[in-house]
């Protein structure tokens, strides 16, 4: 498919497609340098698939970028060798490097919205890169090629949609378009950096299935970079676990996931929430006892919320009724756009319902109430970057206005300690903390007014799995000690199961199924719930293959839900 | 179908907005005029008029009427036309009539029409110069970022922004016409009369105004281009082997254009209303000179007329900019 390198006599059947030996990447940061990748080696023979797994900061994306020589000219310092398709990435002249990029190894990036040019039609963007690697092709033929690959990745009505711009595509379609762009260049290996992280679970399953099919069809290799062990388990044969820039463990996926040898891999695996695992009995016990008393704390009756007017009107929440009892956790799951965040905000009256009512202890809410608090999704943007974390926690206490300054400071320090932070960090700023620590600050702030109920909107979706587990156990602990009721909103089905007594499944603004967590997960009634559960990636490669088969045969609903 | 509908609605909205803006502008001008010290009748009549003569002139010009009545007559003239008696004869002024000059009884509309060719010539030519020079320099310094070229260009554009237009024009005049004698001192020749002479004579005004404005555009283009170059989609195309030059010209420039378009529209509108300094310096009989002269002699009808033309030009240029903006970035919805 791609001509061999005349400069390299070794390029032949013997040489692997990708060979990384002793790769070290240093980023100069002011005075010091940060080592992102440290003495990493791996190889990939043609047609193979390798998964690189690690938490944020492990250097996995840096490795992916190094495969295409994307560090050139950025100031990063590389040592060791990277050879892709017989080309030495470090020393190759620019012209050859450009031929490698896309032509031999094509990259699929994480965020499909920002990764496409917002100003140009998608078909033109694909045609442009196609023509770079096959210059003899005419403009018209390149456009035709773009339509062909868009059609191949499952974009309906590809000829017409090729003239659309990225903002007119859904997230899943954009990711398909990015894969189509890679396909257009007929590369020998696909480098996918978190290709499904921004997507809903059903769309993620479709994209992973697509990658699987394309590999089977074209025989191209795959380097899949992901933080999600489940994604890797279902898509590759070999895997590499990275931590702090180093390879911790490597081997066939089945072996590494079933019999991890390194403690870090074991920790990582243990932290992954399993959708099939029941809730830990200890956490559930206290909650059940109080939940069974049927003491209703918060009740939503037929709440609706519309946005926009007249023709632009969309119904975000369409008549949802639910109750939250004292001390229980209600999980709300749903894909993006299902209305779960809008519902959560209405429950604490940060948002006024267009219809229906929200009652707290039998009284209708007319505004925010100090007993009802909220923890937000993004711990970066939900804290004021110009104020110390202690000040952020103290704000609700000041607003209450019944404590002296000294008492407020003391209480804020107590709260920081309560969520596992050092009270001496009172005057530090948010950027000095990790994502998990920032989320702890968010929780401390929510605890400050002494609430009875906290709505947590995607509290752990921005965190690594090990941090996720810590934050979730903190929430469970607070619930047990303080008798809090929690509403846990998340798109991750396993996270919700791990932490909830009852679960409500939302789709297009309505609750399609509600019940005790175990009932909903083990014996789902609604076909949509079933489809959601079937799309969750599993850690067992054999099981993953079976599910893929099942999706291929009976995936009507999944495809329909893709929109 | 829906697209055409939004287009129509956009045009209608813009039209209503423009008329409102112009009406408000004219009211403000009339109000200001009554606050300005100095008697227009005295000024129109001349130094040696006795009070009786001044009163007569005042009656002829309609200045003895109350302010609101004068304004209503003005509006009547704009929409229906009106008649003026100039002592001995009767003059009909057809709609849109902006009144008669207090100085020489000429129709304001005629004065403006006479000034338009010179101003339009200057504005369009300068626009071409500043876009070509400004965007070109901006792109070049974005492409060569960190290099000597960029540093030289940065200094040049900084000097450009810092030099007042009359200094720049004087320097050009002295260099090109006085010392080097490449060109004769410019005097305006209408395009309809002799296109070649028109172009040669306009060259220096174009360069002066264009150079002055281009510094701003170079800086804007450079920063906007660099901003787009840092975005994720540029990384995508770099990872597919697109050359750095194509990244800038094909992808980054497109993202940098919207602010350039918006600013051009504003500047073009302003220059259409008369680049006073440039027109004055090169003796161009344009709207800028007309405005300066009429303000000096408190010639209300002319001032109002010229300012309304400026307002119209700004409003039209902005509407055009919005459409261009939406064409450049399809995520923008006209509303």
TrEMBL record, chain A:
SUPFAM superfamilies xref list: P-loop containing nucleoside triphosphate hydrolases
Domain ABC transporter, first and last residues per copy: 20-269, 298-533
GO molecular function terms listed in the Swiss-Prot or TrEMBL record: ATP binding; ATP hydrolysis activity
UniProt cross-references to Pfam families, sorted A to Z: ABC_tran (PF00005), oligo_HPY (PF08352)
Biological process according to GO: peptide transport; transmembrane transport
Recorded coiled-coil stretches: none
Keywords on record: ATP-binding, Nucleotide-binding, Transport
Family, similarity comment: Belongs to the ABC transporter superfamily.
PANTHER family in UniProt: D,D-DIPEPTIDE TRANSPORT ATP-BINDING PROTEIN DDPF-RELATED, TRANSPORT ATP-BINDING PROTEIN
Protein name in the entry: ABC transporter ATP-binding protein
Taxonomy of the source species: Bacteria, Bacillati, Actinomycetota, Actinomycetes, Kitasatosporales
Automatic annotation (TrEMBL), chain B:
One Pfam family of this chain: BPD_transp_1
All residue ranges annotated as the ABC transmembrane type-1 domain in the record: 116-325
UniProt keyword annotation of Coiled coil present: no
GO biological process, one term: transmembrane transport
InterPro entries for the chain: BPD_transp_1_N (IPR045621), MetI-like (IPR000515), MetI-like_sf (IPR035906)
GO cellular component, one term: plasma membrane
Taxonomy, superkingdom: Bacteria
Compartment(s): Cell membrane
Annotated Gene3D superfamilies: MetI-like (1.10.3720.10)
Main location: membrane
Keyword match Transport: yes
Membrane disposition: Multi-pass membrane protein
Sorted UniProt keywords: Cell membrane, Membrane, Transmembrane, Transmembrane helix, Transport
Family stated for the protein in its record: Belongs to the binding-protein-dependent transport system permease family.
Protein name: ABC transporter permease
Source organism of the structure: Streptomyces malaysiensis subsp. samsunensis
